[in-house]
Amino acid sequence: MTQKTQSTDNRPNIVMFLADDQGAWALGCAGNRELKTPNLDRLAQAGVRFENFFCVSPVCSPARASLLTGRVPSTHGVHDWLKRGNIDLKEGESSRGVDRAIEYLEGLDGFTDYLAASGYDCAFSGKWHMGNSAQAQKGYSYWEAYAFGGGAYYNYTWMDKGKPQNRQDYVTDHITNKAIDFLKTRSSQDKPFMLSVHYTSPHSPWGREHHPERIWKQYEDCPFASTPDLPEHPWQSPTAPRGYDPKKRRENLQGYYSAITAMDENIGRVLEQLDQMGVRDNTLVIFSGDNGMNMGHHGIWGKGNGTFPMNMYDTSVKVPFIMSWPARIRQGWVGDGLHSHYDVFPTLLELAGAENPLADILPGRSFASSLLSGEDTSDDEVVVFDEYGPVRMIRSREWKYVHRYPYGPHELYNLIEDPNETRNLVKNARYAELVVSMRGRLRDWFSRYVDPARDGIGEGVTGFGQNGLMGEAAKGENPWEQMPVF
Fold first, then answer.
1. How many H-runs (helices) and E-runs (strands) does the chain carry?
2. Could you tell me which residues are beta bridge partners of residue 123?
3. Domain 13-382: which CATH number of 3.40.720.10, 3.90.228.20, 1.10.10.10, 3.10.20.30
4. pLDDT for 142-160, tens place per residue?
5. Which of 13, 5, 8 has the alpha carbon at shortest distance from 352?
């Protein structure tokens, strides 16, 4: 018998699934016929899938911090994946060495703060990776966190009541179990909830021993024709397992696809729980990834830091994005407008009827009206912006310009004629005026939103990690991990 636990509050419940390193191309419903994602495919059929959704920075920690706070990395100060500051560690406690927890986003509100203030019960399960994983932050009252940013799927560290605990079960299952535990505590009189389920999938490692054998075997005969097999990019950086020989390529892709399918199964478990509770119809379910991913695309293995200097290819900055709210959102359509993770903050607050006191100072724009009307607005004047340390991007429907401060190399691509970004036109005299115009617009936009004390434009971000706070808080120490010789 279905248990009716719908809140008497008419505002939607919200469940947000966030994948780790899942490219926009890595979905069955996005046209990848080799990848098994039946639950996500059904979710897209029950709502809208966006084809042109972008992260804010093509690496996990700054992308997640911007998604949560609505701010540019050059305002919140997280410019690379966080190598240090996740939890307190003393000598001998971990192979990761001595460390101290840092709350990187202290003093900056997330959209969950405003949801909580408006009466939502906010719950978190999974990968945090924005500093001090032991402590509940940003309005979350239920807190179950993975300790670090990545690691083995069967031998990992979980925060249990603020203390690190080693676990041997499959981490994707455990993240889901904790999310379902929260849902099972709900009663008919509860206020609406916001549940964040942040997976480590499909981040490396991709070896056979890291994923369920029954799922691994589903891809034994897969030719992996859905991903390109190209020569090594000249800028390839050793930040992810590479697959330039056939055996390693197959192992990487089989592990990557297996991790996604295992995550898809677990997403199905959460959706089933919502159905059993009788709340699915008035629950806004969101699926996205923190950043894109190249699995051989452009000859790169990795995301934005898959190369040095860091790259802004669409395969690095485009993310999957699905929204389903059966009671309000038209089902089975595809949005083709340009949207960014910046836009999630104002959109969720508007849909939840929560106050947004930061509306005038944040760069994002709500697309709630498009969702509720069932027609995605396609404004050709809309552009998206990304940054990764001193690398910045401006992208319209037709053009992309990438500027690397201070010296370059810079890039210009015509995305209509060259969607795979293979012909850099930046030195073509025919487009000199366009380059000047896009560079000026890029400069003006960032000058409006950056905090000079946290501006990444002159920082030595390498893609190998961030070790601490920047600006005055760094106390004279260089927060950027040195790039190894390779």
1. 11, 18
2. 142, 195
3. 3.40.720.10
4. 999 999 999 999 999 999 9
5. 13
